[in-house]
Amino acid sequence: xxxxxxxxxxxxxxLVTFSLGWAIYSFAVDGTALSSHGxxxxxxxxxxxxxxxxLKRDLRMIDTAIMTGLQQGTxxxxxxxxxxxxxxxxxxxxxxxxASVVTDLPLEGNFDRALLETKLLGLVTIFIFAFFKFGxxxxxxxxxxxxxxxxxxxxxxxxxxDAAERAVRRAIRMNQxxxxxxxxxxxxxxxxxxxxxxxxxPKVLMLTTTIVILILARRQFFSEANDCLAPxxxxxx
Length: 237
Known about the structure:
Largest sheet: none
Helix content: over 70%
Distance between the termini: 56 Å
Number of helices: 10
Structural class: mainly alpha
Shape: elongated
Strand content: under 5%
Number of strands: 0
Order of helices and strands: HHHHHHHHHH
């Protein structure tokens, strides 16, 4: 079926609003000066402090335990995305039944099979994107574990400080890159929740997109978690 027969102007506007909202928010959080005041950037600074503190420890079981926790959390979300993708494909197979049920509800918009299948394929795309982000983050956290193992012990670091510092910087950078991809995957899931509003109509999609952006922005810049990581020159609430 031709594209213009599936999407009317209102649905197309809603989809563009959703896509631009996701893209603009991601750019603001990751690629602008505003990001320096966000929770993710401040946590990156704490990751750096963690690695430099690790260099001074002779026993690093606590560091390996932290990395195990990071990997397990990433693996959990990757597995959840696989189940979500499978569920979406099951819904595509029942598109006719879903469309007939939704048509009987007092909702606004067009609920024909072609549009419903297109929406479900879009949801599949979001969860596939999230899965690849989580899968890559899991692998990078694994690489970071190896780099942590390559950091010299405290006594050896004193003998060759330059080599020790280079090893720590590599581990820091790998950990931060892994965290960035993990955050991107988690953000995709949040926007996937907003995307569900499209099944209730284009206006609902624009509303849910706005709500999710406001929630994420508040948690990133105005939450108590962000306040507790504020620099020492700022007053903690």
